[in-house]
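Need residues for this backbone.
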């Protein structure tokens, strides 16, 4: 029992280190790429135009103070859940208008997702498998503002039976 508790504490410590490392790596050069400048598909050169829509929603919420109805070009945009837009709007309000502040919530959720996958796989298998799992989840992320980072962050949390792993 004590050995298992010590192992869980070590994994938690390493997960914090993985979070910090992935946050720094994901944030590297985040101010260099403009809004929707990154490629979703670098082979076909398809740009991430949805980032422009999310940024427009967040800036609109900041200007209008209407947090309940996301709008793009003055029209209601209710196609996606607004959690990331709300977090981006809050970040804009607290940190001012910059690329870093608009992308900070996606960055934090992405780094938490990588650390969660690492901790989950390390606890289930081994530390090496945790590093591999965290690395694979990192490769699925990027520094751009994407609603996918919210679902990627929460999917490992929902998959892990936390109540059974005490």
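Answer:
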């Amino acid at each position: 029992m004590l050995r298992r508790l010590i192992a869980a504490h070590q994994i938690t410590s390493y997960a914090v280190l993985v979070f910090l490392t992935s946050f720094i790596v994901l944030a590297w050069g985040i101010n260099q790429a403009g809004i929707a400048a990154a490629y979703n598909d670098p082979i076909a050169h398809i740009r991430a135009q949805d980032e422009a829509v999310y940024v427009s929603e967040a800036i609109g919420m900041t200007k209008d103070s209407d947090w309940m109805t996301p709008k793009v070009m003055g029209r209601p945009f209710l196609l996606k859940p607004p959690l990331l837009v709300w977090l981006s709007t809050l970040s804009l309000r607290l940190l001012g208008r910059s690329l870093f502040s608009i992308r900070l919530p996606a960055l934090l959720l992405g780094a938490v997702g990588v650390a969660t996958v690492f901790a989950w796989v390390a606890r289930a298998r081994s530390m090496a498998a945790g590093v591999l799992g965290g690395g694979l989840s990192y490769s699925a992320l990027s520094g751009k503002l994407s609603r996918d980072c919210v679902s990627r962050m929460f999917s490992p949390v929902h998959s892990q039976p936390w109540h059974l792993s005490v």
